Amino acid sequence: MAVVYAGWHEQLERPVALKVLAEHLAGDREFRSRFLREARIAARLQHPSLVRVFDITQLDGRPAIVMELLPGGTLAGGRLSVEEAAQIAEGLAYAHDRGVVHRDLKPANLLRAADGTVKLGDFGIASAAEETLVTQAGTVLGTLRYLSPEQAAGQVAGPPADVYSLAVVLGELLGQQPTPVRALLDRCLAHDPRERPTAAELAAALRDDAAQPATHVLPRRPRPRLPGRPRLAPTLLLIGAAAAAAAALGIAAASGGGSKHAPVQPVPRSADPAHQARDLAAWLRRHSR
Length: 289
Hints:
This protein is of the alpha+beta class. It has helices at 29-44, 82-97, 149-152, 159-173, 179-188, 199-211, 234-254, 273-287; strands at residues 2-9, 14-21, 53-59, 62-68, 100-101, 110-112, 118-120, 127-128. The protein is elongated and about 95 Å long.
């Protein structure tokens, strides 16, 4: 839809990004209208977690948006902290409070500033609730992987659709998540939009989790293995654990205070895991009470 250049703003005396409508779309009235509408929407939004728009101009007769330059690149394939996720949710809540729905949340639309701050940009197909939609009802806009169920069905996307998409994005970028965060994201992925928290509620919950001590999110350390001890295959480990439990049952049955039952014989041993499993199943059927 557009080409983005790095540039220098002579009046502001600062580096900027210049987003110019693609040449092959400049003559398309619908695309030109959508592009200018993006510029007007983005220019109204002033929040630390949203890409800042400075000006709307033209380059060689094509509309262009002048915005802050974010040299850190996108978060496609990157990582977010819980604190950064809360900041993005706060920026989204700010936009929702002003009637703006992004409609295309994805890692490629999250960018890092020079100071490391993560910002949400590209309201290219955003819709303002108080304005008439450019696209006809039933048109699906957005990136398939991050679409909410209502967007995928071609319905008009409201703020809950952004919350759903952001939850998918955070599921990718947060890495290993503590249980409270996973439960929170699951709520955001509810099929019914009415069951999802708002972006403001999501931000507050993420803030609360980020403020908790980090000890509950530390990964479990693997137990050291004794030198020279062979590493067993998973199937053998399972069989060994089950056989140990079966042996314990056998001991209990054999020594159970005056029991008249004959002593329980141990499970036959076999080098073949499948054969050992069959022997164990037969042993359990024979000696279970």
